[in-house]
């Protein structure tokens, strides 16, 4: 049994249904230590045969048997491993990866061995030294002469210490001096006990080997021994694996650096979409926060005032009275914490202090909708006290309204007594505090109001109530909705509600909706980004078709090729999200600086959640965009890719 045997290899190409037989029954055996030259006319099928031996082509009949084991039944993964471990390819046109340095080109192959990183690098240096390229390791292929390029290819082919070197016209593109040097290297490889099979047109090349095989009409026409073969090697091939994820990440980065300008533009383009989404979300948080802050700083959103038959000029006081039945009904509503009596008077109120008087157009009893925060100086009124609005306080003391706190005034109220005669009620009250401009109203306690009327024997009943609602602003709307379900005559709502809670809740819903709509519109630019990434990756696949062929020939699996493009997409997503986040942060910084000066509030609030969302969306979109191009790259035919110009 020979080391490598070819049994009745037949191969035809088909153009449509027409068959073009190229190999019509090849039987050959090879031993380690041989340096075999295959000669034959152009188009005779030499490259076809090499591709079959090298595990690049499995679409043939017959059998290739290595060490007694047939390649016929190997899966595509086993063939990948066979090319990685057992075969070293040297091509006429070198097939180096142009964006990698000489050293990196050799390392690509070594990264598929199980050697440690340090040993891989040591071996790359050794191999390059062996082929005389120590001084050129940092150069790129286009900075090398033809002979030098072929030596890089030889060093790369030797990376995993394979037992078979397949050289397809290795000196075809070289002058005679370089040809001699390359032949010397190939001979040296054979002398180390490896099997070297080379395709050539040149008799000189053929004569320097140990054996010449001629192909004619798809068959072996001559098989001549030139000299004795070298002794077989005892060395073992290095164990290998396909390109690891880390290596594909690194290669993707190298490629992005190679096409830096284009990739920067893509990253920038993709970042715009993510940036807009993050900014919209941040602005949404800020605007919502600001509006709520403004409202909550003045009124309590968890309290509502409920009145009956207000605004109807024909309404008698009696009709407006909130009866015990009304109050109990309200008390029974879910989440209602308390129902408190209130009384308002519209007009007929005057306040006098010394010579100054102030008319109050609307007066109501102090209640839970009024926040402590809305009192700028002093405090809420207790019995026999009054809280003034800033406007009223200024009427009583223009220069120093705050000095009124603790002082007394006389409260007058015009009304009708039981006999419907006009009477003036009066009472001395102490000023308890001053409310902020335009918020709340001049107010006294319900008991004080009651006692003022009582002085003229008038009994008052509450003409509104204040409901406090438990469990936050979200519970306000349902309570309000429940109150609205109580209908009177002509299906008119029995109660009127005033309070900001429900409104704030609705407002928040609208703001959230608006932000989401805006973020979605911004998100449309993400679609544009995705399409842009798809296009760029397709271009990248077609630009790198040859590289894909080379990697596959070196034994990288389809999966690794797919990873290569996913890695590239991942980096586009990663970099664009980083850029977008940075830009959004800068914009937020500037906007907040300005807003802080103007409205004393951070108007753009980008949360860690928004940042994470932006990052994930960016990476996921990029990876999704890579699906089709990466799939296409993985499916490329290795032989066609290698001959891609
Ligand atoms: N993919 C293909 N589809 C159809 N025909 C092909 C294909 N590849 C090769 N052939 C044909 O098969 C024949 C053998 O090609 P091959 O490249 O093996 O010859 P060769 O002996 O290596 O030629 P040369 O010495 O010129 O490189 C040629 O006639 C070629 O046109």
Structure description:
With 645 residues, the protein is α/β, with parallel strands linked by helices. The protein folds into three domains: 4-241, Rossmann fold; 255-295 and 507-642, no CATH class; 301-499, no CATH class. The protein has helices at 46-53, 76-85, 102-110, 117-130, 146-157, 176-191, 203-207, 245-258, 260-296, 317-320, 324-331, 390-396, 446-454, 476-484, 501-543, 545-553, 558-599, 608-635, 638-642, and strands spanning 4-15, 18-30, 35-40, 61-66, 69-70, 87-91, 164-168, 195-199, 211-216, 219-225, 303-308, 336-342, 344-353, 356-365, 375-378, 385-389, 408-416, 422-435, 443-444, 464-469, 495-498. The strands form four sheets. Strands 13, 14, 15, 16, 17, 18 and 19 form a seven-stranded mixed beta sheet that branches. A six-stranded mixed beta sheet has the order 6-7-8-3-9-10, with helices on both faces. A four-stranded antiparallel beta sheet has the order 2-1-4-5, with helices on one face. Helix 9 (260-296) packs across helix 17 and helix 17 packs antiparallel against helix 18. The longest helix is centred in the last third of the chain and has 43 residues, at 501-543. It binds adenosine-5'-triphosphate (ATP). Adenosine-5'-triphosphate binds at residues 13, 22, 40, 42-48.
Summarize the SSE layout with pairings.
Elements: E1 4-15, E2 18-30, E3 35-40, H1 46-53, E4 61-66, E5 69-70, H2 76-85, E6 87-91, H3 102-110, H4 117-130, H5 146-157, E7 164-168, H6 176-191, E8 195-199, H7 203-207, E9 211-216, E10 219-225, H8 245-258, H9 260-296, E11 303-308, H10 317-320, H11 324-331, E12 336-342, E13 344-353, E14 356-365, E15 375-378, E16 385-389, H12 390-396, E17 408-416, E18 422-435, E19 443-444, H13 446-454, E20 464-469, H14 476-484, E21 495-498, H15 501-543, H16 545-553, H17 558-599, H18 608-635, H19 638-642
Parallel strand pairs: 3-8, 3-9, 6-7, 7-8, 14-19, 16-18
Antiparallel strand pairs: 1-2, 1-4, 4-5, 9-10, 11-20, 11-21, 12-20, 13-14, 13-17, 15-18, 17-18
Bound molecules: adenosine-5'-triphosphate.
Residues 13, 22, 40, 42-48 line the site of adenosine-5'-triphosphate.
